[in-house]
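ok trying this again, last paste got cut off
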Amino acid sequence: MLPQEIIRRKRDGENLAAADIAGFVAGITGGDVSDAQAAALAMAVFFRGMSRDETIALTLAMRDSGTVLDWSDLSVPVADKHSTGGVGDNVSLMLAPILAACGLAVPMISGRGLGHTGGTLDKLEAIPGYEIAQDETVFRRVVRDVGCAIVGQTADLAPADRRLYSVRDVTATVESVPMITASILSKKLAAGLHTLVLDVKLGNGAFMQSRQEAETLARSLVEVANGAGLKTTALITDMNQPLGDAAGNSLEVINCLQFLDGKTSGSRLEAVVLALAAEILVQAGVMPDLGDAERMAARALSSGGAMERFGRMVHGLGGPADFCERPEAYLAKAPVQKAVAAPASGYLSTCETRALGMAVVELGGGRRQAADRIDHRVGIADLLPLGSWVEKGQPIATVHAATEGEAERVASEIQRLYAIADQPPELLPVVVSRIA
């Protein structure tokens, strides 16, 4: 295999054979393909695209570049989800224990925050002792005993994706739908899943701004995943406002516990969590239809079963045994809390969601550079949903900050990020559409 010939053929718009794609990916992993050649192919794919079969071949080759987990020792379906990222989106923290309480195994391999979006691993690291970098023995034990474990990607899981992504990141080719698809799915396939649900975000707080962009990515992911043998559906969900009422690491863990305790019933967050859970339960063959499946997931919450699984997972991965009973004893609190007053009376009509996420980053709750340390204490809580009527001076959020100056600055910024109108806004449903 000559890498330059594969690059030339894709540059000229030809479809690549699966064997050529596999050989090129093997070269990326083994070092026989240079960064310049990987970048050249990425740019060729960016402009020329890939067919469904090419994208499947790329996904499978990246999956096979490292370890592929085998869960054949388990007698239950193995499931997971993936989100394209948003603000106030802590769905994984609740969905994994709900599915575990419904009898599934959930080996969830998650990521850190990217840009304005929060990362599941960053949230869990707010819990003292919780270790996201686990060896496979501990990971398997917790999945077997508890039913779910949320950890980080190991070095030997889809290593070709890690190298190719680093090249794409500095060559303006990140947005390529075939490469996004292969990047996401190679890691999920390497995790040994039986079924997967995708949460593709849409709106001003998402990477996909338009419905057309979101549906294009969702269809690519669903078609390639199923073509690679992984039963998958996708929900397109609204990210034109924060999903939950908190954005920030410790604050979203607190929100998770409130959710598992039934204190956020009827929220947009609950609608997304239960809809994703229902998709998985039907695909896994646990329940016959989405309505029955959603009711089963709701019972896992109301019975306390999901909370119990979450607590056992935290302890199994190094956290306190009584974390769910006494979270205030373990989660660090920001020294300054400042209410954000509504500047006028009316309906909260729009939110600049991406900028709200970046405000959390500016507080120290995210990273400007990869090596930055996160302040897990900071963030924004008590966020009111769009459509809420507020009186002038009424709190619409609370800033949790390290200093008075940061609290003042971000509170003023939040006032600017929300528009207030005389009439209630027309809002998208939180679950916009389903791609199967």
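PB: full thing came through this time. The chain has a mean pLDDT of 94.
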